[in-house]
Every structure is written in structure tokens, then in C-alpha cells.
Design goal:
Elements: H1 2-21, E1 29-31, E2 46-52, E3 56-57, E4 65-71, E5 74-83, H2 87-102, E6 105-109, E7 119-132, E8 137-149, H3 155-158, E9 159-170, H4 176-203
Parallel strand pairs: 1-5, 2-6, 2-7, 3-7, 4-7
Antiparallel strand pairs: 4-5, 7-8, 8-9
Helix pairs in contact: 2-4
């Protein structure tokens, strides 16, 4: 009897395993920002070389899952909806692209380029999440940056300015596609503000 019971258990486990194997796997969707770089046609180029250091991300948002807020003090994340890369990398990449396409500076390098520069930009992604309201969703993005002279030994003279930028953009629909579109708009607005502020800080 013991052998028969053991055989039945093996058969049952195998049958359950076959059922699980036939179930379709849940596909993970990966997202990225998508927007046109801001234009600065009225500004004259400046003779400075800028290097953008890889941005950090606040610990609460330092994952590639898309995070959402449904109430105060609470943050959750989607298991199968993710950014293509972590927020710090994402924001750094687009800011470098926008700085380069602004044509406002002699050159703009990413963090992995070791060529000498006159100024560096460091930063942190403080917030990046979906804010769920009763009627609408909002894309929330907050970024802090510091602009510094590269080779200035005096710390009081080295830091030119530091600021924090926060934008909330209403999503057209309560869908992940619309949310990412709204987040792209938020990044576009922040990027434009950062580049404008950097330009005016260096032009004075």
C-alpha cells in the first residue's frame, strides 16, 4: 500500500506540473521616454565643455519597475511594467541628448567620457512615479542638479548653482501608455528648464 500511495503522489505532481507548463507566461512590458529635444534657437552658443555625471536615484525609486502612489505614505510597483533602465540612467541619458542637441555649448560629454571639461553637472532623480487620483493619473518627476566648475579647488567658487525641479503632468488616460507619454512630457519640461538655467548661469 505504501508503494501504491507513493506512486499516486508522483503521478499527481507530474499532472499538476504539466498543467502549469501549458499556461502562457505573463510578458513583461518595458518602457522608455520619448519626446523631441527642446529648441533654443534664440540663444548664442557658449565656449564651454560640459560633462554630465551619471545621476543617482533616491532609494525609494531606485528600481526599474514603474512605481505608483494610491494614497499618502504608500508606494507600490507594477510587476510586469518596467522602465527599460533605472531612472538615474534614463534621466541622465535624455539630459545628455538634449544638451547636445541644444547646440548651446562647445561640447557635451556623457559620464563615461574621460575628455577634459570646463564644467560638470551632477544630479539625483528624487521622484518618478504615477500618482493615482480618483479621476486622473499624473506623472510626477523631480530632479535635483548641481552645476560646478571642473578644476576649481575653492569649493565656494566651484559650485555655480544648485536647484530642484518638479513637474506633474496629467495623463490623458488611466493607462500605462498614457502615463509614460505624460512622464515624457515631464522630462521634456524639466530638461528645458535645466538647460536654460545652465546657459544663463554660464553666460553671466
Amino acid at each position: 500500500m505504501r508503494n501504491i500511495s507513493f506512486l499516486l503522489i508522483i503521478i499527481s505532481v507530474g499532472f499538476v506540473g504539466c498543467i502549469g507548463a501549458n499556461q502562457p507566461a505573463i510578458k513583461t512590458a518595458h518602457y522608455s521616454l520619448e519626446y523631441d529635444s527642446p529648441k533654443f534657437d534664440r540663444f548664442k552658443p557658449l565656449p564651454f565643455v560640459i560633462r554630465v555625471v551619471k545621476f543617482k536615484t533616491a532609494p525609494l525609486y531606485d528600481i526599474n519597475r514603474i512605481i505608483f502612489k494610491t494614497s499618502a505614505y504608500r508606494r507600490d510597483s507594477y510587476h510586469y511594467h518596467k522602465w527599460r533602465t533605472k531612472p538615474g540612467d534614463l534621466v541622465t541619458s535624455f539630459l545628455v541628448r538634449d544638451l547636445q542637441k541644444s547646440f548651446l555649448f562647445k561640447a557635451v560629454f556623457a559620464f563615461d567620457n574621460r575628455l577634459p571639461s570646463s564644467h560638470i553637472i551632477t544630479g539625483t532623480v528624487d521622484e518618478i512615479f504615477e500618482e493615482d487620483g480618483e479621476d486622473v493619473w499624473k506623472a510626477v518627476l523631480s530632479v535635483s542638479i548641481t552645476l560646478m566648475k571642473e578644476n576649481e579647488p575653492d569649493i565656494n567658487k566651484r559650485i555655480l548653482f544648485q536647484d530642484r525641479y518638479q513637474v506633474k503632468v496629467v495623463s490623458k488616460e488611466k493607462t500605462l501608455h498614457a502615463l509614460v507619454e505624460a512622464m515624457s512630457k515631464a522630462m521634456s519640461l524639466i530638461s528645458e528648464a535645466i538647460i536654460s538655467d545652465i546657459y544663463h548661469a554660464l553666460a553671466t
